What we know:
By secondary structure, the protein is α/β, with parallel strands linked by helices. It has one domain. The chain contains seven helices and ten strands. The strands form three sheets. It has a five-stranded parallel β-sheet with strand order 6-5-9-1-7, sandwiched between helices. Helix 1 (56-72) runs parallel beside helix 2. The longest helix is centred in the first third of the chain and has 17 residues, at 56-72. The model is unreliable at 8-26 (pLDDT under 50).
Amino acid sequence: MKKFCAWLLLLIMACTMTGVAEEEMNHKYRSLGENLYRLGDAGYIIEHWKNFIGDDYLIRNISRNAQQYNTCIPLDGNVKKYVFFIESPCCVNLASDLSGENEIYVKIRSKFETTATATLALDHYTDYTRWFHMTDHHWNHIGAYKAYCDIIDMMFSNSCADAIKLLLLQRYDAIYAIDPRFYEKEMGKKFNAQKYIEKHEIDDVLILGDVQFFIRTFGLSGR
């Protein structure tokens, strides 16, 4: 049986309004104070988006994390690596035209060496209202199922028919979840991904998160 390791993190942090003029605000964002906004008439409470592409420091963080990931978990054929990017209001202006690929996802896809990448894309602001809780940044049951199907499709799209894709997780006899936000603080050392993968004989690795995850330091170490 195969073993699976996931870096699981969906962290939505408050984004400041620095550099965003009031006249640039689309009418669908209604300020509630404390960096929170109501999304039009839908009643969903969100944080305001930020143009991460315009922040060179944060973009360099993505490149640095990708280099660390590529070095600590080499794509050598023994372990399959996957990246799943979650679009969120932090990096998506839900009141604008959402056609086309998210620039953060394009950056991640170009920098991370992977077996495959995929994204939970918000093609319309109603996607967010369908997939997320009204007053919380986490997926609701519909969003969780949508992401689950997309991840399965990414990982197993070339291996079997659509009718049985959802059964494929039964192939794993163990699943390990690592949260890099707390590992070094609680364990007193960086997370050695290679040793962990070898020790537990892991076959597949999934990096899962939104923009706030990919701009934070992963905290991985080599051998």
